[in-house]
Amino acid sequence: MNKVKGLKTKDLLGLRYLSAEDINLILDTTQSMKEVMTRPVRKVPALLGKNIVTLFYEPSTRTRTSFDVAAKNLSANTTNIGLAQSSVKKGETLIDTAKNLEVMGYDGVIIRHKMSGAPHLLAENIKGAVINAGDGCNEHPTQGLLDMFTMKEKKGDLAGKKVVIVGDIAHSRVARSNIWGLNKLGAKVVVVGPPTLIPIGITEMGCEVSYNLEKAISDADFINVLRIQLERQEEGLFPSVEEYHKLYGITVDRLKKCKPDVVVMHPGPINRGVEISSEVADGPYNVILEQVTNGVAVRMAVLFLLLSGKKPMLMKKGL
Amino acid sequence: MGIVIRGGKILEGSSQKEIKKDIFIQEGIIKSIAENIALPKNVQVIEAENLIVIPGLVDMHCHLRDPGDPEEETIASGTMSAAKGGFTSIACMANTTPPIDSPAAVRYVVSKAKQEGIVNVFPIAAATLGLKGTHLVEMERMIEEGAVAFSDDGNPISDPRILRLLLEYARPFGVKIISHPEVLAMSKNGQMNEGVLSTMLGLEGISSQAEELMVERDILLAAKFGAIHITHVSTAQSVIMIREAKSKGIPVTCDTCPHYFSLSEKNVDGFNTFAKVNPPLRTEEDVKEIIKGLKDGTIDAIATDHAPHREEKKKVEFGLAAKGMVGFETALPLALTFLSKEIPLAKIIKMMTINPAKILGIPKGELKEGAAADLAIIDPNAKHKIDIKQFASKSKNSPFDGMEVQGEIVYTIVEGKVVVKEGRLVPLK
Fold first, then answer.
1. Which of A131, A153, A155 is nearest to A143 (CA)?
2. Residue B272 resides in a domain
3. A179, A208, B226, B418: which is deepest, by most CB within 10 A?
4. Angle at B324 between CA B322 and CA B326, to 5 degrees
5. Contact A116 B312 (CB under 8 A)
6. What ipTM describes this predicted complex?
7. How far apart are CA A318 and CA A68, in angstroms?
8. A157 and A276 fall within a common domain
9. Residue spans of beta strands (DSSP E) within B107-174
10. DSSP of B238-266, one letter per residue?
11. CA gap A16, A184 in Å, rounded
12. pLDDT of residue B47
């Protein structure tokens, strides 16, 4: 916890914009934060007096709670605003909401939004730090970071490691953050899924595409399994959940043909029997719950690096 | 009082080159175009040494938002913006609120333009009632009131049978049906061009096929049932198909807009809502083919698709932002900046004057004796930085702010009346 160096950026909008150096700084800091979490008193005063708000325009339990716990472990004050309580329904714009929060003295805004780029709009318009907790199909940088942290914990340096991401790549912000981040750390990424769920030009981001799951995972170090949203079936992007499971579901039978130390990951929430079988979800291969624990540590690191050492947001006199 | 424009080079009639001549204007008419006109008494002299006198620009596609949203644009502010851009005649689309789909609505636009417009305004009427694509409008009665063409622009005419009927019904009147080519089932919730960048940004893409399928359909119907004009062509394949159709003698014409040859999808990166437009900005390969199409005459005209939007419709999440950009005050500089290397000035000007005028069937776009004195005087080489704060349009939604361009509009004259002088609007009396 003696790091004084912070991130070069005001905000965390996406792993696309971070350097390998920044990513490593966050992952190293995460290690220290994880140590804090094992103490009998899991609280350090790093962000004492700082005000942080989670602004979630999309439902979430895991990510939001994780940020909330992370901020509290660092002694920050937290407020949670969800879509139902917010002014959105009254027609207020995102910028107006943000400006209001700013003058109440929030130092950091953690935002989840169903539209890609919403955190960028926020970041351009407020002085405080903006942390992207998932925007549309664009990025979910803290998920990408916690995935990479978990991978490093399991197998060390990621250079040359093979990561296979399986599922709805087109609509996945987790996939994008993984691809950006893993590339920067030198891992090899392969995406697998039905062609209708793999977007045009994805290889330009630095990954290979395969439609053959078994071949792709045969020499993989990690399999990152994405949640299949059932509404995609309604849109006609794939014919049925059953066929999806048959083609792309992660099962014990399939894992038996992989490297013995293959690690199965999932950002949650899982659809048992669809993208992952219960046997795998509850079995020895997966690290799904460890990912959740690491998520808190990663978010502590991000909050710490973005907010500590910065002066608290001062209220303007006369306001 | 008459006007003599002296010492400038002029783009006259169908000439391919600028020739140094003077112009004498009286009572709103070009009286004579000749070398060294002797100054009659009591005339205003405009010295145009080192400048070029061109026919006033003609825009065949713009949105003036009247009736609808006077905070975004009015016919007054829209025509002032047009005048600053060197336009003397503009044709406005029918997708106002309510839409221009009745003779009374056309009359409203015409009379409002007469009251407050400072350039000529030609309404393009809706092709179908309520822009719904199901029932034909009363074409003859609307032409009587001043409609010059028919279009559901903003929406495609999705039902091919309705388009066929429109093409057939319009034939006796000699007016054009203008197609906005978009297959809505393909473009769906799309936010930008589909490609590497839409994938990187996690934005729903609009494939170029969403446009091209409709262009192909339009060509097939035009070949059989009557002439069509396709507006805001944005993709390489659209240009290629139209080129082929023209070579077969199919009665199809088309236009593109300055943003389709000066910008690409890259301008969207960073979730830049000012670069959100429909059809979307495409790739650099598309831009190349658009320029090729302008050069070889496949694309007949450059139209602005001037689409004013109030600030709060752009300062929102990309997915919520309105599509479109203002265009009058940047069109000519962009054309000169991005096309001059490939296309001679005279040809660029034709695509912004006589060509669109002919497609609309309006007697505009040419400098000739006896014609209305609609003209602009430009300095084609003057460099400047685009500054949205200087726009006369009520809306400032332009992705070109700060861009270094060449070409300045020095004077705009509408029916003998100077409306822009030294690049500034002349205050109304």
1. A131
2. yes
3. A179
4. 125
5. no
6. 0.93
7. 31
8. yes
9. 120-125, 149-151
10. HHHHHHHHHHTT--EEEEE-HHHHH--GG
11. 9
12. 97
Identify the helix (H) or strand (E) that includes residue A164: strand A162-166
Q: Is residue A4 part of a domain?
A: no
Whether A2 is in a domain gets the answer no
On whether both A98 and A233 belong to a single domain, the answer is no
Digitized pLDDT (tens) for each residue of chain A, 319 residues in all: 334 466 778 999 999 999 999 999 999 999 999 999 999 998 999 999 999 999 999 988 899 999 999 999 999 999 999 876 666 666 789 999 989 999 999 999 999 999 999 999 999 999 999 999 999 999 999 999 999 999 999 999 999 999 999 999 999 999 999 999 999 999 999 999 999 999 999 999 999 999 999 999 999 999 999 999 888 888 899 999 999 999 999 999 999 999 999 999 999 999 999 999 999 999 888 999 999 999 999 999 999 999 997 766 555 554 3
Residue B243 lies in a domain: yes
A176/B200 Cβ within 8 A: yes
Task: State the nearest Cα–Cα gap between B66 and chain A, in angstroms.
Answer: 25
Asked if A227 and A93 sit in the same domain, the reply is no
**Residue A10 is assigned to a structural domain of this protein:** no
Contacts of B291 (CB under 8 A, 6+ apart): B261, B338, B339, B342, B343
Distance of CA A211 to the CA centre of its chain: 25
Are A110 and A148 part of one and the same domain? Answer: no
Contacts of A189 (CB under 8 A, 6+ apart): A162, A163, A164, A165, A178, A179, A182, A183, A206, A207, A208
Q: To the nearest 5 percent, what fractions of chain A are helix, strand and coil?
A: 45, 15, 40
A158 and A239 co-located in one domain: yes
| Catalytic site residue from B305, B374, B379, B401 | B305
Sequence-distant (6+) residues with CB within 8 A of A24 are: A185
Q: Which chain B residues are closer than 8 Å to A205 by Cβ?
A: 196, 199-200
Q: Which residues of A are annotated as a binding site for L-aspartate?
A: 90, 173, 227
Residues B350, B352, B357, B359: is their CA dihedral positive or negative? positive
**Which amino acid, residue B297?**
G
pTM above 0.80, yes or no: yes
Q: Is residue A230 domain-shared with residue A275, that is, in the same domain?
A: yes
Please indicate, yes or no, if residue B47 is contained in any of the structural domains: no
B305 tagged catalytic: yes
Per the structure, the count of domains in chain A is 2
Whether residue A5 lies inside any domain: the answer is no
Q: How far is CA B181 from CA B136, B151, B152, B156, in A?
A: 18, 11, 10, 6
CA distances from residue B246 to A169, B119, B297, B354 in whole angstroms, order as listed: 42, 33, 10, 19
Q: What gap in Å lies between CA B425 and CA B419, rounded to an integer? A: 6
The domain total for chain B is: 1
For residue B169, give the amino acid letter. Y
Q: Which structural domain range is residue B60 located in?
A: 56-360
Q: Are B387 and B329 in contact (CB under 8 A)?
A: no
Judged by CB atoms within 8 Å, which residues 317-336 of B form the interface with A? 317-320
- Total CB pairs under 8 A between chain A and B: 69
Q: Which of A117, A199, A200 sits opposite B271 (nearest CB)?
A: A117
CATH of the domain at B254: 3.20.20.140
User: CA-CA distance, B266 to A87, in Å (whole number)?
Assistant: 34
- Per the CB < 8 A criterion, the answer to whether A137 and A197 are in contact is no
Assigned domain for B45 exists: no
Range of the domain at A202: 142-288
Q: Are B160 and B183 in contact (CB under 8 A)?
A: no
Tell me the binding residues of B for Zn(2+). 61, 63, 153, 180, 232, 305
State the amino acid at position A305 in one-letter form: L
